[in-house]
């Protein structure tokens, strides 16, 4: 085959391709959605889009004005010196040798009391004592809404009958009043703790329908948590002293008596330091004050988001119709 014949042979498929490409491109152009198609489709469905936007805006307005205002109080604390083991635990470490010699174990292993207390704030024992002490069971579990005009918390009568002072239940097999599990679950919902590792500051927040109760309860919680742990530690030290005095009366060895006297003296010092600590575990840096506005999402923002959602649904529906039309033609 000559050079000319080869060139003619190669030119044949190229001509075929030139003929087929426009046909293929033409088909694709029919199926592609152009800017003109989109503008025309949006214009044709503008009434539907606007109606959907208005409809969702109305629904959002109803939801925004029906939501119960929730207030968030905040307190900032920092671990006290005693919780970090700078005073009481130093005495405990000095007793290790004497206590071992006397056959006594005071469990002086260093522990982070702060972290224990932060978990303890959700414990059943502490919460039960806290609720009983401040008599807050009804406003905690049956709060309805805050009446700003008379500055009073309204109680949900479907949960608690204020006239008769009884809890309402529709099932006779269900307990007639809330138990500690209800209390614990409620506090897990409304009480949040965050800690800054860099600064050591601890922020505790509490949400409630009443701004007054939210701030008061938060301040009470820190005070009672300090007192609760102080009582636990002092009771433990007092038991140690009683035990040491009993052992002292049982031994006639002068050397052991000296050891027990030293242990009793040091435990007494430890008890004295525990009793004089006002902020036993946490020092308050910024106390909780009554919040001046609800923590809910602003009503206007809810309404705007609702309208935007409706418009987007309309636009998506328009694109769906346009795409379906293109695929079926």
UniProtKB/TrEMBL annotation:
Q: Which residues form the Polysaccharide chain length determinant N-terminal domain?
A: 33-132
Protein name according to UniProt: Polysaccharide chain length determinant N-terminal domain-containing protein
Q: What membrane topology does this protein have?
A: Multi-pass membrane protein
Q: What PANTHER family does this protein's entry cite?
A: FERRIC ENTEROBACTIN TRANSPORT PROTEIN FEPE, TYROSINE-PROTEIN KINASE
| Keyword Transmembrane helix attached | yes
**Membrane-spanning intervals of the chain:** 47-66, 300-323
**Compartments where found:** Cell membrane
User: From which source organism is this entry?
Assistant: Paraglaciecola hydrolytica
Q: Chief localization class?
A: membrane
Domain of life of the organism in this record?
Bacteria
- Which keywords does this chain's UniProt record carry? Cell membrane, Membrane, Transmembrane, Transmembrane helix
**GO MF term set:** protein tyrosine kinase activity
> Can you name a GO cellular component term?
plasma membrane
Q: Which InterPro entries match?
A: Bact_polysacc_biosynth/exp, LPS_length_determ_N
Signal peptide residues are none
């Amino acid at each position: 085959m000559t050079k000319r014949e080869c060139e003619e042979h190669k030119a044949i498929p190229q001509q075929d391709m030139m003929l087929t490409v426009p046909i293929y491109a033409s088909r694709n152009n029919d199926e592609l959605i152009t800017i003109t198609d989109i503008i025309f489709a949006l214009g044709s469905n503008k009434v539907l889009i606007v109606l959907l936007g208005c409809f969702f805006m109305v629904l959002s307005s109803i939801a925004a004005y029906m939501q119960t205002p929730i207030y968030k109080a905040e307190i900032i604390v920092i671990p006290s010196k005693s919780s970090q083991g700078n005073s009481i635990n130093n005495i405990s470490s000095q007793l290790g040798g004497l206590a071992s010699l006397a056959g006594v174990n005071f469990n002086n292993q260093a522990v982070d009391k702060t972290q224990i207390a932060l978990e303890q704030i959700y414990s059943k024992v502490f919460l039960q004592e806290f609720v009983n002490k401040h008599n807050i069971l009804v406003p905690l579990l049956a709060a309805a809404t805050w009446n700003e005009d008379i500055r009073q918390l309204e109680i949900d009568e479907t949960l608690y009958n204020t006239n008769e002072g009884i809890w309402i239940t529709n099932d006779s097999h269900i307990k007639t009043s809330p138990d500690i599990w209800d209390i614990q679950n409620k506090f897990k919902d409304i009480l949040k703790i965050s800690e800054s590792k860099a600064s050591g500051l601890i922020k505790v927040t509490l949400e409630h329908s009443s701004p007054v109760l939210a701030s008061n309860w938060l301040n009470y919680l820190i005070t009672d948590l300090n007192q609760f742990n102080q009582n636990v530690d002092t009771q433990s030290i007092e038991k140690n002293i009683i035990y040491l005095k009993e052992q002292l009366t049982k031994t006639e060895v002068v050397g052991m008596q000296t050891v027990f006297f030293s242990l009793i003296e040091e435990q007494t010092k430890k008890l004295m330091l525990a009793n004089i600590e006002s902020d036993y575990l946490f020092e308050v840096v910024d106390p909780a004050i009554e919040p001046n506005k609800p923590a809910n999402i602003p009503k206007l923002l809810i309404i705007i988001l609702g309208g935007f959602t409706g418009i987007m649904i309309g636009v998506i529906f328009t694109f769906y119709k346009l795409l379906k039309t293109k695929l079926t033609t």
